[in-house]
């Protein structure tokens, strides 16, 4: 399934639903690194939905996303406990 998600990202572009770890941002669909905020600012950070966040900014940004961003991505608003159970 990871290969299918990677092909989908090549065709549609990386999703704006992303995960974040230590200043690095990863595509929520394929897992590739799409940006970082180390030493500078990640300009797209104000338009993405970070997986695991439940803040107002992420909720507002989620409403603006299209199907191409939501296709084959996890629900970004699941509780962290639920995310850890899936692993």
Radius of gyration over C-alpha positions, nearest whole angstrom = 13 Å
Number of helices: 4
Proportion of residues in helical segments = 25-40%
Number of domains: 1
Report, as a whole number of angstroms, the end-to-end distance: 15 Å
Oligomer: single chain
Mean pLDDT over the full residue set: 83
What features would you describe in this structure?
The protein is globular and about 30 Å long. A hairpin with a 2-residue loop joins strand 1 (17-21) and strand 2 (24-27). It contains four helices and four strands; from the N terminus they run H-E-E-E-E-H-H-H. With 87 residues, it is of the alpha+beta class. Strands 3-2-1-4 form a four-stranded mixed beta sheet. The protein starts with a helix and ends with a helix. The protein has one domain (2-79). The mean pLDDT is 83.
Which descriptors would you attach to this protein?
87 residues, alpha+beta, 4-stranded mixed sheet, 4 helices, globular
Chart the SSEs and their pairings:
Blueprint: H1 2-12, E1 17-21, E2 24-27, E3 33-36, E4 49-50, H2 56-64, H3 67-70, H4 80-86
Parallel strand pairs: 1-4
Antiparallel strand pairs: 1-2, 2-3
């Amino acid at each position: 399934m990871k290969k299918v998600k990677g092909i989908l990202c090549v065709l549609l572009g990386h999703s704006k639903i992303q995960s974040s770890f230590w200043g690095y941002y990863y595509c929520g669909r394929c897992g590739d690194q799409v940006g970082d905020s180390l030493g500078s600012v990640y300009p797209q950070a104000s338009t993405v939905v970070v997986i695991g966040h439940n803040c107002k900014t992420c909720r507002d940004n989620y409403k603006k996303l299209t199907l191409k961003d939501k296709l084959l991505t996890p629900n970004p608003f699941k509780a962290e406990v639920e995310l850890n159970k899936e692993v």
